[in-house]
Prior knowledge:
alpha/beta, Rossmann fold, 2 domains, six-stranded mixed sheet, two-stranded antiparallel ribbon, 9 helices, 38% helix, globular
Amino acid sequence: xxxxxxxxxxxxxxxxxxxxxxxxxxxxxxxxxxxxxxxxxxxxxxxxxxxxxxxxxxxxxxxxxxxxxxxxxxxxxxxxxxxxxxxxxxxxxxxxxxxxxxxxxxxxxxxxxxxxxxxxxxxxxxxxxxxxxxxxxxxxxxxxxxxxxxxxxxxxxxxxxxxxxxxxxxxxxxxxxxxxxxxxxxxxxxxxxxxxxxxxxxxxxxxxxxxxxxxxxxxxxxxxxxxxxxxxxxxxxxxxxxxxxxxxxxxxxxxxxxxxxxxxxxxxxxxxxxxx
Length: 276
């Protein structure tokens, strides 16, 4: 495990600091800005910066203007469930660890405050806020070593925890596979939220023929299933329904999102998502 950790950290650090494709990841879009003035809204202005009080008072849409960069408070939240213990190319958990390493080095490069949260239906682990490179090591190591089996995510409890403990406006990266009922509305109005969906292509379209004994990674229950193209297509439709609902929720609450597969070039895909 230590060899895999060191390999992952070396590659991630080279990608972020070596400028392989510029600063696409390292330039986060968070509100790390100091307030300057209020001006009339113009086409192309960020709607998140609309000053509603001034807009209502004047009858003209107004936006806040900022001028000086300041450090961002960045939180990387690993959403822990048994379902991440899967992968036809590599485990989703290993992919998530690489994403965390890249985001962490990007944060350190920009001198931002970085903290980590591992959450299932309760807090699994907390990595306290820091600007130290040791935080990158601790976060990535925890992501690789965490036992995710028999765990399930309670997003309502996660949001309650964030609202109770994170008082400063933050840039929050949620990393997981995002299945089930998900509502992040209670944190999206205050914080800038990114949802990074990690999937394996086989789980979205399991076109495998034959009789299989499927075991749940959450409660270890098993069921015998006969798989063919018809059943694979039916399962694919269920995943698409889940994701359509998910993306509609993200769009409605201005949550940035993107999907990363286990066989993707993680750095390139992550850069595309963050660039928007």
